[in-house]
Amino acid sequence: MSKSFDLPLYPYARHADQDQDQDRPARHPVVIVGAGPVGLAAAIDLALHEVPVLVLDDNDRVSTGSRAICFSQRTLQILDRLGCGQAADMGVTWNTGRVFHGAGEVCGFTVLDEDSHKHPAFVNLQQYQLEHILVQRAQALAAQGGPLQIRGRNRVEAIGTHDDHVRLSVSTPEGDYEVHADWLLACDGANSPTRRMMGLDFVGRAFEDNFLIADVVMQADFPTERHFWFDPPFNPGQSAMLHRQPGDLWRIDLQLGRDIDPEVEKRPERVIPRLKAMLGPDKDFALEWVSIYKFQCRRMERFRSGRVIFAGDSAHQVSPFGARGANSGIQDADNLCWKLAAVVKGHAPEALLDSYEFERVYAADENILSATRETEFITPSTQASKLFRDAVLALAETQDFARPMVNSGRLSRPTSYDESTLTSPDADGLPDITRPGAPIPDAPVPGGWLLDQTGGDFCLLWVNGAPPPDLPQLALPLRVVHIDPVQAPLVAQRYLGDAARAAYLLRPDQHVAARWRAPETKPLIAALARALSQPEAAHV
Hints:
Blueprint: E1 26-33, H1 37-48, E2 53-57, E3 70-72, H2 73-81, H3 86-90, E4 92-93, E5 96-101, E6 104-110, E7 122-124, H4 127-143, E8 148-152, E9 155-161, E10 166-172, E11 175-186, H5 193-197, E12 202-217, E13 226-230, E14 239-245, E15 249-257, H6 262-265, H7 268-279, E16 286-300, E17 304-305, E18 308-310, E19 316-317, H8 325-344, H9 351-378, H10 383-396, E20 444-445, E21 448-449, E22 458-463, E23 478-483, H11 489-495, E24 502-506, E25 512-516, H12 521-531
Parallel strand pairs: 1-2, 1-11, 2-8, 5-13, 11-18, 22-23
Antiparallel strand pairs: 3-7, 4-7, 5-6, 9-10, 10-11, 12-15, 12-16, 13-14, 14-15, 16-19, 17-18, 20-21, 22-24, 24-25
Helix pairs in contact: 1-4, 1-8, 8-9
């Protein structure tokens, strides 16, 4: 990691809240605990919605080690909306994955990278690089008068929950103070102190095998691909993975098995021989970061406990081989923040926040199911599972039908909220890819990209050659995006199918709330009320 990251990015500074009368502590609309990717993304999103937000973190700089490295197209789209689109340009784009068994290749796959999307399917970028981008964006918003603060070396020591607020006891280098929050977002990671202080826990499964992560600096001519090995000669009986990152940095994962001493295995004298066996004895490299981890496929039973809401690793954990951890966490923030902003501003009842839990628990269960299946294939827990895995790998070397069954990590995909209470009855005959609950696909439009014109607010997407209709005055913003299908044929293909025209009500997180072939004002207002958990008769 660059030495520049050794310096504090948000150093401790005394704040007026610390001098407040502690019988009447300062009160904030939203406090976020944790300045990792999820907490920072949530803070930026809330600030863009003009909701004052305070971020507390016991650190004052980005995380150590690359940690999360693989970011999906959907996450890149969210980052773009937040003003952090440079993450895509800084990352390494890859399109091909290869799976090996022993010394031979058994199958490969290609992730789609169509010209018809602004962003590639995946990029590799170190988590600390992304955190740096997010911190800079947050600080820029604050400097422009945005309602956002980050306080480094402010550790939350105790939490008290009440009907109308959350009480936080905070320690700093200059002593303790108390602050109150209308809403608290717990984005403080897998070992969440917030979750522990509230006496909450995970349900699910923890796996016993240990894996070594090594960030290695080296110049190498390995292709920019995802390589995964089962039973390789350099790590017999186990698995391994190799990914390129920016700046001559490579991520290597090595399965070590169950009965090991993690502290011993992290020592350079143990790590370096393993890497030389993989890379060759004459390859020059330097260790930048080493860690040991175990797979966990677990989540909290509830993501909301009164006025405390959990997101990211504090709410759910999955194995890393499908790139679901940071991606699903940033998508948690994307789902939550527009809803919380609507509640804070009085545009929606607190019931809207129940949809965050419903939709993101559904997404977490989808991820956990996929992660559990891949983990069972990579590290079989029974003799029967091992026999099945080995048979699939043997067949895949020569038989096409077996190759789709090889599971070295199904890659992260965005969730469609098909059963959400926020969606309205659907119009028949429009494409399945844009059904209610689904995230909208991007497409080129005159002057740019479709997704750049949506997001942040509710949006009426009018795919029609005729001018869009006049809309009544509403209490919250409703953007209108008019696309002439003749001028944007790919929009026509993805949003119309065989229909001549259509209209879509898009949520601020760019998921479809409702769609029609020929909408009228009354159904549109009803769909907007439903998307805000309002009674249909409510004046929006």
